[in-house]
């Protein structure tokens, strides 16, 4: 996104994101960094749509498969849209230098439904942790756990990497792994992360709690939801191990659907 257009994109996207969020979740806060992360992701979605679906019929098929409820929204021509179609059309032309052939209402509807979906995932995740605000890290987590969003992120990463091979340096040893080998590597990485959390709790958080017993709030401000993160990581790792063990045939791929579904819920 060019710097001279970034303010215009923010003017288009930020009000719509805030409207959707506080209309559905008035008791929770959406931090500025989280809102900014959503704006960046919506821009990636837009770039993905224009690159993958240059014609209306292609986008229409993708939209109905992934967001079937969008049909109702598109049929209501009189409904007030969250993202201005005229402004979106102008920015697409300025940013990408093309007059898109598809009906711009499909693009606007896609952005709106992706925003709703992302906000719901983030709200449900944060709510289960007992927090009342969403930050950028929460957005990153739910984006990478949703299959639709992950496909978009991968597509954007591959496109950018092809355009500039020096930006992304992929570990060749990991790139050469099979799917199941990657899963095992992922489990090892998560296990190490869990061990690191245990060290933080045992050798830093707990001793500091004893030392600053009269100012526990300071300790909580420093370590945040460390216990919740540890518990969530432990459950997630257990689900990953179960998925690896529950294969009927060793030749079959390990399914990560259930572990990530439980993680989001």
UniProtKB/TrEMBL annotation:
Residues 178-265 form the DH domain. InterPro entries: DBL_dom_sf (IPR035899), DH_dom (IPR000219), Histone-fold (IPR009072). GO terms for molecular function: guanyl-nucleotide exchange factor activity; protein heterodimerization activity. SUPFAM superfamilies: DBL homology domain (DH-domain) (SSF48065), Histone-fold (SSF47113). It comes from the Eukaryota. This is DH domain-containing protein. It comes from Rotaria socialis.
């Amino acid at each position: 996104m060019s710097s001279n257009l970034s303010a215009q994109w923010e003017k288009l996207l930020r009000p719509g994101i805030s409207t959707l969020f506080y209309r559905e979740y008035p008791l929770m806060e959406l931090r500025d960094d989280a809102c900014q992360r959503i704006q960046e992701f919506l821009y990636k979605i837009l770039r993905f749509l224009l690159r993958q679906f240059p014609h209306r019929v292609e986008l229409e098929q993708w939209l109905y498969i992934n967001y079937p409820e969008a049909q109702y929204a598109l049929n209501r021509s009189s409904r007030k849209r969250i993202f201005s179609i005229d402004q979106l059309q102008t920015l697409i032309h300025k940013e990408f230098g093309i007059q898109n052939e598809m009906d711009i209402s499909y693009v606007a509807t896609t952005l709106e439904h992706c925003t709703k979906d992302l906000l719901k995932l983030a709200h449900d995740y944060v709510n289960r942790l007992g927090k009342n605000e969403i930050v950028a890290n929460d957005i990153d987590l739910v984006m990478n756990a949703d299959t639709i969003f992950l496909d978009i992120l991968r597509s954007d990463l591959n496109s950018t990497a092809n355009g500039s091979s020096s930006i992304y340096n992929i570990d060749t040893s990991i790139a050469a792994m099979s799917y199941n080998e990657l899963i095992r590597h992922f489990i090892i990485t998560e296990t190490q992360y869990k061990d690191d959390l245990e060290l933080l709790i045992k050798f830093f958080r707990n001793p500091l709690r004893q030392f600053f017993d009269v100012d526990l709030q300071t300790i909580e401000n420093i370590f945040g939801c460390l216990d919740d993160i540890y518990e969530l990581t432990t459950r997630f790792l257990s689900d990953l191990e179960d998925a690896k063990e529950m294969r009927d045939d060793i030749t079959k791929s390990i399914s990560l659907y259930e572990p990530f579904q439980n993680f989001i819920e």
